[in-house]
Write a structure and sequence with these properties.
The chain has about 425 residues and is an alpha+beta fold. Strand 5 and strand 6 form a beta hairpin. It is elongated and about 75 Å long. It starts with a helix and ends with a strand. It has 11 helices and 18 strands. The protein has a 7-stranded mixed sheet with strand order 3-2-1-4-6-5-7, sandwiched between helices. It folds into 2 domains: about 240 residues, no CATH class; about 120 residues, no CATH class. Helix content is about 30%, strand content about 30%.
């Protein structure tokens, strides 16, 4: 084959290869891994306890009916709401949310025997699996079954702190292990009907103010989003809110290299280097953090100042100030990068180094989980036979809440753990 023929043959081979590649079927889109779907709420399950002790909330014009109607209606705009009634068993309501709101005013719903509260939480919690949110409205009165009270009329008082509290602890420990958190909204309402005290003695009440509680249960990141949306829409505000968080400790921060900076130092790999700090010549630096995933009270400046613990054996470091992003002074122009970091943060924490005891110091800033205790005095009673002790209070509420609190709060449970280095 001469040179001209060889070149022609090579050219034909090249054209054939190109045509073959062009005709080869392309990889189907479905063969490629799908893009990760952003986490979001799939379904909202609303449970209303319907034991006979709830009947007084449903007679006449009561705040209870106003709140329940509003929560169901507005939660349904976040995601579709499935409605259940619950006492000894959970029963799915077959109508629409609008139908249920009508039935609150027209149909006797609270007619069933009382049930163990930890059993109710078990059934409600099962509906908070995956990307679901479960809501429960209840008077949250801890009580033994009727037959046990008939045997021992004091059993609710003598054993609520042991048996009943630990039943609650067991249930919420299980939810915590599944990564599920809880938020409690506390309300008060007129009550028109039969009240059952801790001995199951009946008392007729007309218009007396009684507490009730809305629990929201779900994965932490979903629950934070749901709570924010619901609270923005509610016209009837809860008297109190308590978050039981189950989030992994936040550990991400951004070091600003000019914002709130004082003294001599440089930023390197999110650590402070070439630091000059000694008595009379301190240095200050600021960290940006996104705390939007924490309970609302844990984002408060006073809470952070009071509870953030800083430890370092080789440096004297303290928290100087806490600023929410919107309160950061803007007189000094920030670079484009720092402006971007600030916009990604919800808080700016400024620290001061008063002295360095070694050439390098490891610093840890921990924000341990702490839960509010508003329920311990004004909202709880251990003798609801007496009107003065009963009004606006819930029998054994402290033992219920302490059971939940002990399930979520431990010495190793932190909202925030930051680790960084200071280098001379």
């Amino acid at each position: 084959m001469n040179l001209l023929s060889l070149r022609a043959y090579s050219l034909c081979l090249l054209l054939l290869l190109l045509m073959t590649e062009g005709c080869r079927p392309k990889r189907k889109t479905e063969d490629q891994p799908p893009a990760a779907k952003p986490a979001g709420i799939d379904q909202i399950h609303f449970f209303m306890e319907t034991s006979a002790s709830m009947g007084g909330y449903l007679r006449g014009g009561t705040e209870f009916k106003d709140v329940v109607s509003e929560v169901i209606t507005k939660a349904n705009t976040i995601r579709p709401v499935t409605i259940w009634t619950i006492a000894e068993q959970a029963k799915r309501y077959e109508g629409t949310p609008a139908d249920f709101v009508t039935d609150l005013a027209t149909t006797p719903l609270a007619t069933e025997r009382s049930s163990k509260l930890h059993t109710i939480f078990d059934r409600v919690g099962k509906q908070a699996a995956g990307n679901n949110i479960a809501l429960l409205v209840s008077d949250c009165i801890l009580s033994f079954p009727d037959e046990e009270i008939r045997k021992n009329r004091e059993i609710n008082r003598t054993d609520a702190s042991s048996v009943l509290k630990n039943n609650i602890y067991d249930e919420f420990s299980r939810l915590k292990r599944q990564g599920i958190s809880a938020t409690v909204y506390a309300f008060r309402s007129q009550f028109n009907g039969t009240y059952y005290d801790y001995r199951n003695t009946r008392t007729a009440l007309s218009g007396e103010s009684r507490p009730f509680y809305l629990w929201a249960i779900g994965r932490q990141e979903l629950l934070v989003d749901f709570n924010r949306k619901l609270q923005d829409m509610l016209t009837t505000r809860p008297a109190k809110i308590l978050d039981f968080s189950n989030s992994t400790a936040l550990n991400r921060y951004e070091l600003f290299f000019s914002l709130n900076k004082k003294g001599e130092w440089r930023a390197k790999n999110n650590n402070i280097t070439e630091l000059e700090a000694r008595p009379g010549k301190p240095a200050e630096f600021a960290l940006g953090l996104d705390l939007s995933g924490l309970p609302t009270y844990a984002q408060a400046e006073d809470f952070l100042k009071k509870n953030l613990a800083i430890s370092s054996k080789d440096a004297a470091v303290k928290l100087l100030s806490v600023q929410k992003k919107e309160n950061v002074p803007t007189e000094k122009r920030l670079s484009e990068r720092e402006e971007r970091l600030l916009n990604q943060s919800t808080h700016v924490l400024t620290f001061r180094v008063d002295n360095m005891f070694a050439g390098e110091a490891a610093v840890t800033a921990r924000l341990p989980v702490r839960f509010d205790n508003w329920y311990e005095k004004e909202w709880t009673t251990m003798d609801d036979r007496i009107p003065a002790e009963r009004q606006n209070k819930t029998f054994a509420l402290q033992h219920l809440m302490n059971g939940v609190k002990e399930a979520y709060q431990s010495s190793t449970n932190d909202f925030l753990v930051l680790n960084f280095k200071l280098v001379k």
